[in-house]
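All the exercises in this workshop are built on plain-text protein records. The record below serves as our worked example for the rest of this section.
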Amino acid sequence: MSEVLVLCYHAVSPTWPATLAVTPEALERQLTSLVRRGWRGATFYDAVFDPPSPRTLAVTFDDAFASVQTLALPILERLGLPGTVFAPTAFISRRDRLSWPGIEHWQRSPHAAELIPMGWPQLGELTDRGWEIGSHTHTHPRLTRLEDDAARHELAQSRAECLQHLGQACRTIAYPYGDVDGRIAGIAERAGYAAGASLSRRLEPLGPYRWPRVGIHHMDVWWRFKLKAARPSRRARASNLWPGPDR
């Protein structure tokens, strides 16, 4: 049976001190270490449904920051890894700076340009290079706080826009903030998604609509990355022995 490791990144920047940014040097060191240990890359969809190796690695990026194309893409290509980007489609279509609770304060900082997302042409270029584009909803809300109709709209609208602009079906979704429960997972399934990515540390059923990822952040120096990516730690994080949510 294949072992599957799904990593969750966000932005890549040599200077941005945000929690959700990693430096290009850290990203390359982390992924190089896994490739040297026999991990082989796959998109998120393939990692869930058709892992190509006994040790399958899916590298995912939430929010579609422009830095993923400019800084992460060359690193992954050097290592022979595909990536998966989960895009909040309202921001992609308007090319607005990304803004929601947790990152909006950066709008008023010297790092505001880091919040620029990719546009549809840039996402299309990634698909041409073998990457997967999934949904990160339409406007990046916390889905479990929405009524059913609003949640359905978020999931259906983003999936429709991906199809319209990229010309291929959007099969996967990453829930904003990693926030998902059985109700939202059911809405995602009925909306036509095949799999959903979470960030939960709590005990929950392992299945395609609540697939756990390991979130990698700015503070994850080398020893922390090795600990988080290690199999015993991942098992603990999927149980109720590991306190608190990973966002």
About this structure: The radius of gyration is 17 Å.
